[in-house]
User: What shape does this take?
Amino acid sequence: MKLQHVLGGLENLGPVNLEARVFVQEWEKRIFGIHTVMMAESAHLAEALPRYPMASLPTTFQHTWTWASLRTGAESMQPFEYFKFRYYEKWLMGISQFFVDEGYITAQELGWWTAHYRVQPDAPLPDRPSEPIKRQVVDYLLRGDSGLRPLPHAPRFTLGQTVQVADPAAADHTRLPGYLRNKKGTVREVYPGAFEYFCSTGPDGLEGPMPVYRVAFDASDIWGPKLCEPNTTIYADLFEVYLQSRTTENEEKTP
Amino acid sequence: MSSDLFKYNDEREAASAAKVRALEALLIEKGVIGSDSVDAVLDHFEKIAGPFNGARIVARAWVDPAYKQRLLADTPRAIAELQLPLGMEGAEGEHMAAVANGPGVHNLIICTLCSCYPWPVLGLPPYWYKDPVFRARGVREPRAVLREFGVPISEHTEVKVWDSSAQIRWFVVPERPANTDGFSEEQLAALVAPEAMMGVAVVSPPAMA
Assistant: This one.
């Protein structure tokens, strides 16, 4: 189990940060932009619903890069380190390491160029605009990458049904908030269609399109009635593989 | 305390600034991106996607109760009714849903696993939304968190916390403030901050002239 998977509910962290700026340093805009260009150039977009023309895009980028890539990286961080770095510092570390690991750049040249811009912060970037890449970036931002797919099977759970959240093996990446594991909730919406996540999460269970449910949890069922704030409901959208039938689960536990 | 994250010395910030510029320069050199690619992203969040869209949606919901009902029932279709920029179903807005505050109910949007946020209508998430302390405590003690944001909630009011973990990107239609009778939609929209559309603020009545 990774700390990042069970962040919800962690205590003793002190007051919340009220900083309302999106970027607290100018440099943060650039790493956000680089990540978003990578998403717009991702190889998997050839198969996305808008069928982006990836084969003809004049870029040397050949990888699939999605939110799952960035999240998996953040979830793999040593937990103490995770708290030490600001949001976009983690992005900068993860993304630059990706480009080194995959051979797009070398650590040596990154070090050399960093030293260069350290001494001359205002030295210009190379001037090599690309109209086709710019068009793809804009097109991706305008049309997105919906995971909506045809239903592969009828939804296993129905509106109003009491369900129990599964407790799958802890894997590298998950979309199941850890504090909901094994908790009892009620299906409040069966979303039309099925949804496919960006990647398989292996033993965690996301694989191909599946129904998604809006599940309501009474907060006292999660934190216990004595430790819980009153009159609080938590809603989560959960992929079907993360849910079990409540009665079946109870029978399985009966010796 | 997490606010220490903003007290880094200039050295640390300058090192990050140099590294990200080096990375962008190298990616341009290697043909991975163009020198105008990052600016194209940032330009989108200046002109197309931003909280100015969400504020217009909220303002319309305030002046037109039937529109508000349509917005809550089928958010994408109701958004498409308005003359907003193209792209409201674009990246991180492919599947959006609105929930409304009202007498007896207060909504709070959170993403405990990362920082899912409805880009087309709210732009990019403010720092507080991405901070691990908010993400950890928002589901455990939302009323305590809301008090720290200056929004005390009566125990007779139900708090609904929406943890964005799959396809839906949630946002809140806050309550219309008092003393706004006769306001135009434009005047109303100017009162609506992103924080109110995530549930950590209420919309204040306008200052008396």
